[in-house]
Write a structure and sequence with these properties.
The protein is of the alpha+beta class. It contains seven helices and three strands; from the N terminus they run ααβββααααα. The protein has a three-stranded antiparallel sheet with strand order 1-2-3, with helices on one face. A hairpin with an 8-residue loop joins β1 and β2. The chain is globular.
Length: 154
């Protein structure tokens, strides 16, 4: 499976780290989650803000598709969101921004243990996959709306 190039780079960085360095880097990535928030005045093609039962707080996924059909995400996280979810938010925004919608929909979740490590995946299985699921849902909603608009115009 090929991943978007930026995500592949992150996977390769993390998968070769010893467990302690991996965890330290995840904490560093979690500190960068705030930088993934929407900028003042930024507009989006889709905004999906909600609290799901599998997450400790509200998560907002904002999606914009540019004229080259490349996706750009912004994410907001409530104050109770866990460190690992924050880390995955930074990783996924960095790794998926600039990919095409179809590429994002095709990304399997099998890379997550390569970044997070098998032990954390086992302990926090819902958390590590949550943000990826929300981002894919946003892309699917965008593609469904685009198809419906094209059908209505035809």
């Amino acid at each position: 499976m090929s991943y978007p190039p930026a995500l592949q780079d992150i996977i390769e960085l993390f998968e070769h780290l010893p467990e302690q360095e991996r965890r330290e880097n995840l904490i560093v990535m979690s500190d960068g989650a705030k930088r993934q928030e929407p900028k003042e005045g930024e507009t989006f093609d889709l905004e999906d803000v909600r609290k799901d039962e599998e997450c400790t707080d509200t998560v907002g996924v904002y999606l914009k598709v540019d004229e080259e059909n490349k996706v750009h995400f912004a994410i907001t996280l409530g104050p109770l969101v866990q460190t690992l979810t924050k880390a995955m938010t930074s990783i996924l925004c960095r790794g998926l921004n600039g990919a095409r919608p179809e590429e994002i929909m095709a990304v399997p979740a099998d890379f997550v243990p390569r970044i997070v490590g098998a032990e954390l995946v086992r302990l926090r299985s819902q958390t590590v996959y949550y943000v990826l699921g929300r981002m894919k849902t946003a892309v699917k909603m965008y593609l469904d709306r685009k198809r419906a608009a094209a059908a209505a115009a035809a």
